[in-house]
Amino acid sequence: MILLPLRMNAEGLPTTSIGIVATCHAVGFLLGCLYTPKLIRGVGHIRTFAVLAAGMAICTLILTFAVDAILWGAVRVVMGFCFAGLITVSESWISERTPQEQRGSVLSTYMLLYKFGTAGGPLLLSYGDITDIRFLLAISIMFSFALVPVSLTRGRSPEISNAERLGFKAIYSLAPVSVVGCIVIGLMNSSIMNLGSPYMATIGLSVGEVAFAMAAVQAGGLASQWPLGWLSDHMDRRYIILGASLFVAAVAGLLLVLPDAPIWVTIVLFGCLGAGSLSIYAVCLAHATDLIPSDQMVAACSTLLFSWAVGSIVGPLVTGYVMSWIGPFGLFILIGLIALMLTGFVIYRLRVRVTNLPEDRDGFVGVPATSPAVVKLDPRFTKDKQPDLQPGTETKDPQ
After folding, report:
1. What is the C-alpha to C-alpha distance for residues 271 and 273, in angstroms, rounded to an integer?
2. What is the pTM of this model?
3. Distance, CA of 212 to CA of 119 (rounded, Å)
4. Who contacts 265 (Cβ-Cβ below 8 Å, separation ≥6)?
5. pLDDT of 376 strictly over 90
6. Which residues are CB-contacts of 14 (< 8 A; sequence separation ≥ 6)?
7. Per-residue pLDDT tens for 33-89?
8. Distances (CA, A) of 216 to 121, 123, 204, 255, 378
9. 126, 211 in Cβ contact below 8 A?
């Protein structure tokens, strides 16, 4: 996600092309989430994982042929499909084999490992030339190596059920802020992760500095998620979404007016950007958990993930065009405007409907936007709970 935009930028490709390639990956990711369960039911977890990992390794090698937007776009669609499939296989396998009493700790461990991987990956770019194909060869080796432990597994493959989704109209009537929030987060985060590195390269930062700044985005998201989650457990979670979106808009404004700031300031600001933007998805999910019956939450979370994926498809495409039109700083203009739009919508919803929160609402759980299977690890969704608030109901007591 960081290497390819930097390489395309170094080759002089316009940001519109970079955005299109990023959108192709998001399209493949969405398709992978939708169709991998059918593949798993047909041939099982182990064979599905082997096919998808091999596909990732092959596609990574194809990227070494030439730096071409059309070729890379087509390859990234396949890679997005395979990557989503690998995550779906892994998470459904983990959730199937994890006892109920251990789901919280397993999900936390999985979340930490995932974040450490996404934060540590960019740092490897500081140890070589981004035009050297050895980076891509190393990625291909990693996916090939992942085949070894899975192929040697003797255990029975778990069963996988149909991934149901709750209709957009139904979930919007119950938790509109969650739906809109997930779409907006997809727009912002995909733009930051795919076009943040070309922006920094354009203003003169070295590859190592870009790597640390992009790693700071993930580290900021990891560091802020639990404090914001704790706060959201003690008030209407919409206020947390409101505050985080305002914070993102403010940080985007600072990055816009401080293009020549010292590198440590830029890295800190990108960390703050991740702290605000990457933490909102889990709060949106927790807000939906407060208002939707537990027996519908798996289907609702699938719809919210779909909403996030739609935003991820549109985000890089629009942002790449805006950056080509008004310059690299268009990234932060657009992010700031999108964050302010979310802020305005949350303020509107707070005025329209004051939520009467259920007394037994579950605490915050950090859930990544990876696949529909991950929500089955969430211990909140196994309890019988009915929300106190029905669609269209208004109260005067915010608590």
Report:
1. 5
2. 0.82
3. 9
4. 258
5. no
6. 320, 324
7. 888 888 887 888 888 889 999 999 999 999 999 999 999 999 999 999 999 888 888
8. 11, 10, 18, 15, 27
9. yes
The total number of residues shown for the chain amounts to 399
pLDDT tens string 229-288: 778 777 888 899 999 999 999 999 999 888 788 889 999 999 999 998 888 888 888 888
Give the mean pLDDT of 152-158.
69
CA–CA distance, 75 with 21 (Å, rounded to integer): 9
Task: Give the integer Cα–Cα distance in Å for 268 and 210.
Answer: 12
Number of other residues whose CB lies within 10 A of the CB of residue 136: 18
Give the amino acid at 398.
Answer: P
What span, in angstroms and rounded, lies between the C-alpha atoms of 321 and 338?
15
172-176 contacts at long range (C-beta below 8 A, 24 or more positions apart): 173/391, 173/392, 174/288, 174/291, 174/292, 174/387, 174/391, 175/287, 175/288, 175/290, 175/291, 175/292, 175/300, 176/349
| DSSP codes, 238-299 | HHHHHHHHHHHHHHHHHHHH-TTS-HHHHHHHHHHHHHHHTTHHHHHHHHHHHHS-GGGHHH
Q: Please choose, from the candidates 183, 176, 236, 180, the residue with its C-alpha nearest in 3D space to the C-alpha of residue 399.
A: 236
Q: Which residue type is seen at 74?
A: A
Candidates 238, 245, 167, 233; CA nearest to 380 is: 233
Contact 156, 252 (CB under 8 A): no
Residue 203 is predicted with a pLDDT of: 85
Interval 156-174: pLDDT, tens: 666 655 555 667 788 888 8
DSSP, res 391: T
Phi (first) and psi of residue 313, to 5 degrees: -70, -45
Say if residues 107 and 377 touch (Cβ distance below 8 Å).
Answer: yes
**What span, in angstroms and rounded, lies between the C-alpha atoms of 128 and 65?**
19
Pair 300, 288: CB distance under 8 Å = yes
Apex 187 CA angle, 181 and 189, nearest 5: 95
Structure tokens at 281: 């998805």
Say if residues 219 and 268 touch (Cβ distance below 8 Å): no
